[in-house]
Design brief:
The protein is of the alpha/beta class. The protein folds into two domains: 182 residues, Isopropylmalate Dehydrogenase (3-Layer(aba) Sandwich); 133 residues, 3-Layer(aba) Sandwich (Isopropylmalate Dehydrogenase), CATH 3.40.718. Helix content is 41%, strand content 21%. The strands form two sheets. A ten-stranded mixed β-sheet has the order 2-1-3-12-11-4-5-10-8-9, with helices on both faces. It has a two-stranded antiparallel ribbon with strand order 6-7. It binds 1,4-dihydronicotinamide adenine dinucleotide and magnesium ion.
């Protein structure tokens, strides 16, 4: 039995985590959940954004499935997501985007995996505002060590999964130092895996190429902010935020979560698509080497996605979150 910390989160978080735990129970997955919340919900209840009990649970289990957490815009509330990623050095944010039969999009044959550096860059939290001068400085700290780690992780993943190409997205023509560090880090990793093609593209062109001919990409590696933007873009190519999974991975801990946020516009209405979190949970099962049950759940999900009428509204269907969940359970 694997002990896993479960963080339901805010907004649609509790609805989609319930969908996943129901499906796991029906499939008799050998996972025992240890529920510990964080975010707006715990703050309203106890005044704590990240309760100590949650940190203790994470440090013990070293593995979590996490719902989205609301981060208000502006000063005074540091993102819990960013905090956890930095505190536990979860330096890889791995986000696969794949065309799925049954999900109608403008594209075919997309199968790419984005590796986003998850602890540095413009999300380092190094921001100062001089009120007198009216100047804000936001420092995008990129380190040689951090760049080596994420670039090596992307190539090693490509190697393990029989993928053929790694594309680095950067802006080294303008952001020269940080961009060059990433290019050099990729060149080093590339020398270790010479059978994998390495190419680099400037981020603006990368965006154009992604919407124009996304099927040309395989593994993509990039810095934190670019990766955040590109992963929502890639979600849009394959059916939207409701279907794209993610994982925050470090050398000692992993937290699996969807790419999307807490979706306050649809929270509590039974409209949320749990596919993204379920796919994150399936990634978690592969991480635990529970491949058989992971594939079984994946198959039931893929079969359900073939029936648009059994899907949630974001995919053109009419099912509620719990009806969609039941359709998956019926196919297990
Ligand atoms: P969002 O990703 O929550 O929502 C964007 C749009 O996608 C909304 O129209 C929403 O209804 C839709 N959507 C998202 N997930 C969906 C799902 N599973 N099924 C159906 N539709 C879905 O982004 P937004 O609105 O910009 O952010 C809301 C909050 O979430 C913010 O406080 C933000 O900071 C937080 N956030 C948290 C993340 C995390 O915990 N990892 C990641 C991204 C945002
Ligand atoms: Mg994002």
């Amino acid at each position: 039995m694997h002990l896993v910390t479960l963080i339901p989160g805010d907004g649609i978080g509790p609805e989609i985590t319930k969908a996943v735990t129901d499906i796991f129970a029906a499939a008799q997955v050998p996972v025992q959940w240890e529920e510990q919340n964080a975010g707006q919900t715990t703050f309203d209840q106890s005044g704590e954004l990240i309760p100590v009990a949650l940190l203790k649970s994470l440090e013990k289990n070293k593995l979590a499935l996490k719902g989205p957490i609301t981060t208000p815009v502006g000063k005074g509330f540091r993102s819990i997501n960013v905090t956890l990623r930095q505190k536990y050095d979860l330096y890889q944010n791995v986000r696969p985007s794949k065309t799925t039969p049954g999900i109608h999009t403008r594209y075919e044959g997309i199968d790419l995996v984005l590796f986003r550096e998850n602890t540095e860059g413009l999300y380092s939290g190094l921001e100062v505002f001089d009120e007198r001068l009216g100047i804000s400085d936001s420092i995008a700290r990129v380190t040689v060590e951090g760049s080596r780690k994420i670039c090596h992780a992307a190539f090693a993943y490509a190697n393990r999964h029989g993928r053929k190409k790694v594309t680095l997205a950067h802006k080294a023509n303008i952001i020269k130092m940080a961009g060059t560090i990433m290019i050099n880090a990729c060149k080093e990793a590339s020398a270790e895996f010479p059978h994998i093609i390495f190419e680099d593209k400037i981020i603006d062109n990368m965006c154009m190429q992604l919407v124009g001919k996304p099927e040309q990409f395989d593994v993509i590696v990039t810095t934190n902010l670019f990766g955040d933007l590109l992963s929502d873009l890639c979600a849009g190519l394959v059916g939207g935020l409701g279907v794209v999974a993610g994982a925050n991975i470090g050398d000692n801990m992993a937290i699996f979560e969807a790419v999307h946020g807490s979706a306050p516009d649809i929270a509590g209405q039974g409209k949320a698509n749990p596919t993204a979190l379920l796919r994150s949970a399936i990634m978690m099962l592969h991480h635990l080497s529970e491949h058989v049950v992971a594939d079984r759940i994946d198959k039931a999900l893929e079969d359900t996605l073939l029936h648009q009428d059994q899907c949630t509204g974001d995919l053109g269907g009419h099912a509620t979150t719990s009806e969609f969940t039941q359709h998956i359970i019926d196919k297990l």
